[in-house]
Amino acid sequence: MKRTLLFTIIIFLGLIFLTYPEITKGKENGSPGGKTNSPKDNGNNCTDCHNTQLNNGQGSVMISTDIQNFQYIPGETYSITVTASHPVFTTYGFELTAETPTSKAGIFTIVNSSQTQLVNGGNAVTHKITGILGSSTKNWTVNWTAPSVGTGTVDFFVCALNGNGDGDNSGDEVHTYIYTVSEQQSASIEEKKKFLSVFYSDGKINIDATHTIKLINIYNINGQIIKSINSDNKIISSSEFSDGIYIIEISDIFNNKLITKINIY
Fold first, then answer.
1. pTM for this structure?
2. Residues 159, 36: contact at Cβ < 8 Å?
3. How far apart are CA 256 and CA 112, in angstroms?
4. Where are the CATH 2.60.40.10 domain residues in the chain?
5. Superfamily (CATH) of domain 26-183
6. Residue pLDDT, tens place only, 64-78
7. pLDDT (tens digit, 9 = 90+) per residue, 215-236?
8. Cα four-point dihedral sign 253, 254, 255, 256
9. DSSP-derived pairing of the beta strands 235-237 and 204-209
10. Does the domain made of 195-264 have the CATH classification 2.60.40.10?
11. HSE-CB for 241 with a 13 A CA cutoff
């Protein structure tokens, strides 16, 4: 009888242990994706998992960037910082995305892989379990490469969780913020983007360039450089790359630059 009771207690404690991360830790290792409260995320946010009202309480979240005058230059890379704050709480999380009215916009690359990671097919950024602690405030920074000419206005949507640290999903605060930038309208920019283009076909990366190419950098989806070419090479074999999404950065001798995604398959 005692053995049966002991076995039952062990099984019960084991079940509690196995379910503990879901019950008490919520999404400490990052948002599952699609929780920014944006239109393209169907208005989903962290209140889907945390029992609280949206934008209620003493906490807040903001976005800051080095985009001058709220106008981005197509193809340029900018630093985007999310800041969550609360006068008492010390545990934080977030998800950030960028959208036009019709689609996700731009390319996110990770600059601090110990605290942030890509999510939602690379269209958003969220925290890692090693990037949730802060005293009154918590900052996360990521790079964002602006989309191509003609994209128009881009909205950054962020949803942040300010956790009270009590181990469950109640009593936390969820806050949202929108940061809007417009495309810099300049004939010179549009002309600049006509000098370079890239496409993938028949196992090769093909580059069309008006002028001599000076530098080609190829990054994986996490922003890590995997190949650099300092020559006028307009056809690159993809045999050394695994299938997947890559980011290619091309510069010519007149400093015209193109940064875009390619799908190698």
1. 0.66
2. yes
3. 28
4. 195-264
5. Reeler domain (2.60.40.4060)
6. 999 988 999 998 999
7. 999 998 877 889 999 988 899 9
8. negative
9. antiparallel
10. yes
11. 24
